[in-house]
Amino acid sequence: MKTLKIAIQKSGRLNEKSVELLKNCGLSFENYKSSLISPVSNFPLEILFLRDDDIPEYVQDGIADLGIVGENVIQETEVEVSYLQRLGFGRCSLKIAVPNAFDISDLSELNGKAIATTYPVILGKYLKEQNIQADIRTISGSVEISPGLGLSDAICDLVSTGGTLKSNGLKPFANVMSSEAVLIGRSGSEHEELVKELIQRIQSVLRAKETKYVVLNVHRDNLQSIIDLLPGVKSPSVVSLAEEDWVAVHTVIPERDFWDKISQLKQAGAQGIVVMPIEKIIL
Ligand code: ATP
Ligand code: ZN
User: Fold this and answer.
1) Which residue, among 58, 197, 177, 183, has the nearest Cα to 119 in the 3D structure?
2) Which letter does DSSP use for residue 255 in this model?
3) Structural domain of residue 120, as residue ranges?
4) pLDDT, tens digit, 9 for 90 and up, residues 216-237
């Protein structure tokens, strides 16, 4: 029996969401912090818990068939892997930031300056594209304290809310790359069918996250205007109610324009609107 291997981060920012995604795919496994490998009991899959930096290489070399890792790590390690699916979590940006007192207005002001980073490859490419000659200081962590220590004039680091920059007296200046967690694989994997099956499960979970299930009541006179507002998966289900001339409409609404849609539905005569989360959408 073939067994697929998927590598996810052992601990850190992507661990919890990666585990949650796999569990939502119906995969049953133990999530012991101490173990390196966890077998899945109801799918031919093993989960490898690794440092995120090692994941792209493990996938490239065939030790794992799949991996969940930030795009930033893939770009930095310059490996040959295929992007199979964006996962919508672990969103962040790699930004150049400078001390608040550095009154910078143009990238060219970084010429001749020292920039500390743990992303020398991505930063190097970016500076080259922008025609900037700066001194890249590669350090292994705590990049944000380096200007304060006099080790650099600027930094290039991952930012999500910007809180860490702020508390270190830094301000973001240029966006080098935007990143999110992605599912990676290798072309020509010998387990193609299993990979396909797992991707389909992941996609059905992601689709469900983007939509809400909505049930509402409406008078038959207003039914058509409600239907016109609802593209739905196919057409909405319309169910008779005990009260004559009233029906219940069941449909799904995309999360992104959810509140707009709800207020349009109310204006069109919808009442008693009930909203529910969806677990999976299988097409
Ligand atoms: P490891 O021990 O696995 O090497 P790490 O310290 O390198 O972990 P984390 O800080 O856990 O990594 O970040 C993992 C990934 O989370 C990053 O590579 C990035 O893709 C994503 N991420 C999202 N938001 C942020 C953020 N604010 N700072 C850093 N990484 C972030
Ligand atoms: Zn790491």
Assistant:
1) 177
2) G
3) 92-179
4) 999 999 999 999 998 655 678 9
Closest residue by Cα to residue 29 from 48, 13, 11, 12: 48
Q: How far is the CA of 54 from the centre of ligand 2 (A)?
A: 8
Q: Please tell me whether residues 114 and 146 are part of one structural domain.
A: yes
Please tell me the total count of domains within the chain: 3
Residue 208, both tokens: 């469900």
DSSP codes of every residue in 70-92: EHHHHHHHT---EEEEE-S-S-E
* Same domain as 126, residue 194: no
| Residue 282 in domain | no
Whether the CB of 192 sits within 6 Å of ligand 1: no
Position in ligand 1 atom list of the atom nearest CA 141: 6
pLDDT at residue 34, rounded to an integer: 78
- DSSP β-bridge partners for residue 155: 97, 116
Q: How far apart are CA 59 and CA 48, in angstroms?
A: 11
Instruction: Give Cα 127 distance to the centre of its chain.
Output: 26
Ligand 1 atom closest to 90 (CA): 23
What CA–CA distance (Å, rounded) separates 168 from 67? Answer: 33
How far apart CA 133 and CA 105 sit, in angstroms, is 17
CA of 142 to the centre of ligand 2 (A): 13
| Same domain membership, residue 120 and residue 134 | yes
Q: Do 174 and 184 fall into the same domain?
A: no
Q: What is the pTM of this model?
A: 0.90
